[in-house]
Fold this sequence. Notes:
The chain is mainly beta and 180 residues long. It contains one helix and 14 strands; from the N terminus they run αββββββββββββββ.
Amino acid sequence: MRNLRKITAITVVVAMVLSLMSFGSVFAAEYDNSVVVSATPSAEFVEQGGTVDVTVDLTTAKAFKSGIIGFNLVFDTDVFEYQNVEFTYYDDDLGNKASDWEANSGFNASTNHFVFGTLGTTVYTADHAKHQPIAVVTLKVKDNAPDGAQAINLTTFNGVDANLDKVGATMNSTSVTIGG
């Protein structure tokens, strides 16, 4: 009789946990905060041997403080060669130039991805006075790159806000046409 009570109690607890998990997953796709990450090339057409600057931007419908945000800028390394990045700076409260992205971002030569990352930045709406793009990444088109459209993709978004709630994202990738 005691074993039956224990089994019944354990079964009830497991059923309650499973029902809460399924209830939570119904709402998992809705986020309190979401962002739009965009990559915009400086030119639609680029010749072999030329360069293209890709402006990387992050905006939101309502400003919020992030916890951790990260994503990748991915391009075909048989077509493009990473040249440089210029992060956007702002004046912090002490009047110093600062970038919330520079310390945790960079080109990863082993994966051939440019990884962007930040901790605890404020994400602004596009029309907010303090909004600025994150950075401009310069890519050189290789001399032997084939003619045609070449994708420059934003991928692998992960993010949480300051309350550690997941942040949703829309990724607006781009492309450039190589050759004439």
